[in-house]
Amino acid sequence: MSKLLIEGYPKFKKKTSDPERTLEISEFFCDTIQGENFIGWPATFLRVQHCTQSCIFCDTTEIWRHGNPYSFDELFGLMDQADLQRKFKMGQRLVLTGGSPVQQQDKLILFLNELISRYGSKPYIEIENEATLMPKDELIALVDCWNNSPKLSNSYNPRDFRYQPEILKKLASLNNSWFKFVVSCEEDWKEIKKDFLDTHLITEKQIVLMPLGASRSELEKYRELVLDIAIRENVRYSTREHIVLWDKKKGV
Fold it and tell me: Domains of the chain by range and CATH?
């Protein structure tokens, strides 16, 4: 079962002595599964603090708003304690999530390169990304799977903050990039078609529809509607398996 290595809230710690080799972390846990898009893969989640968005339906808002600075050495120590070198070699994936990982991409690039050097091999790396910041080529080269989640108007984020065509176009050009959309009604699909498909920013093959739901009851409310839309439009559907299994429980 999931092993919690860092819980950013409500604990607080002193700043590290080397800010250049430090990440702001909200949560760090391993021995769980990926619950969205490529569901079921054994996974370790490194959740960074801060985000560019503030979605009304976010299921991790109260986590990524809090956090603490952790040096690379502290993180490597926790990884060694959890035997992650062996687990990564066996296939457990490293998922960079948030919040917004790309906000800390310079430090993540350094951290991942040091991790690879330390372990002598690279884990399979996924990144969960709100698609509002341009990723650097150095980060793109390290990531095996881009789980992008552009926000629609149903998130209540201002359009200028959430909709970035040039960034979407760059991400869509990658052959390991998918776009997850949180959907609760037909109007959401119309918005996806108008802003993302009709503009040729992404393709149908890259789309994944997920029902809105930060709890089991919400998922049940919207699941059948979203599934019907996905089948009708010939795009992929994804549940939120971590919500199905554990409801609102954190650190899983």
Answer: 3-180 (3.20.20.70)
DSSP calls for 50-69: --S---TT-SSHHHHTS-EE
What is the model's pTM? Answer: 0.91
Residue listed under structure tokens 């959309």: 181
Q: Which residue type sits at 210?
A: M
Of 168, 140, 137, 136, give the one whose Cα is nearest residue 152: 168
Local structure of 239: helix, strand or coil: coil
> Residue 249 has what DSSP assignment?
-
User: What phi and psi, each to the nearest 5 degrees, are found at residue 94?
Assistant: -100, 115
Rg of the chain taking only CA atoms, in angstroms? 18
Secondary structure letter of residue 154 according to DSSP: G
Roughly what angle, to the nearest 10 degrees, separates helices 72-81 and 105-119? 50
Neighbours of 251 (CB within 10 A): 17
Tell me how many degrees the CA angle 130-134-139 measures, rounded to the nearest 5: 95
What residues in the chain have per-residue pLDDT under 70? 1, 8-14, 56-65, 249-252
Question: Which residues, other chains included, contact 39 with Cβ-Cβ below 8 Å and sequence gap of 6+?
Answer: 33, 238, 239, 241
